[in-house]
Design brief:
Largest sheet: 7 strands, mixed
Number of helices: 1
Shape: elongated
């Protein structure tokens, strides 16, 4: 079985390994899988548009870029559909293989080149997910749903309410003094 190459891997063979050298790249491909949080995400097949600049530095290659895409989801208060444009920047240093340690535990938080390739998937995922709101809203003034009937507050008439009886007093509801 042949393993498919990740679209997030970029070949930097053309970039000279002298500090100060720079090359710009443009990548565009459909998202191979969901990127986001439970209520808001870039769905598989949605176009990812990535502009990046790779700069040679003493220890590796500094990659700076911007991701543009579209996320879909639902409002955390009223469950209405949400469409949100994604414009997020990221930056990461990829060390040359010769600059990394022989002990893999030392390099847990470090990105390293794999030959002439840099895998930019993790920095892109991190940038997108960290920029997303934990509780996305359709509108900053969204009031959510009525807890009794489940209708959206903005579509209910003013003064909408439900009569509720405390369950502890329900047994006395039919009792009337003589």
């Amino acid at each position: 079985m042949v393993k498919k190459s990740s679209p997030f891997k970029i070949n930097l063979h053309e970039l000279p390994r002298r500090a100060g050298e720079m090359k710009e790249y443009h990548l565009a491909f459909p998202a191979p899988e969901r990127i986001g949080i439970p209520l808001l995400a870039i769905e598989p097949g949605t176009e990812l548009d990535i502009d990046l600049r790779a700069e040679s530095v003493d220890d590796g290659i500094l990659i700076t870029g911007e991701i543009q895409s579209a996320a879909v989801g639902e409002c955390g208060r009223c469950l209405e559909p949400i469409n949100e444009e994604i414009h997020q920047r990221f930056q990461e240093l990829y060390l040359y293989e010769s600059r990394t340690s022989d002990n893999p535990d030392d390099d847990e938080e470090i990105f390293a080149m794999e030959g002439d390739e840099a895998d930019i998937e993790t920095p892109i995922r991190d940038a997108i997910i960290l920029a997303m709101p934990l509780n996305p809203l359709c509108d900053s003034d969204c009031e959510g749903l009525c807890s009794e009937c489940g209708e959206k507050w903005s579509s209910l008439p003013e003064g909408h309410s439900h009569e509720s009886v405390d369950p502890r007093w329900k047994g006395l509801a039919g009792w009337k003094p003589e």
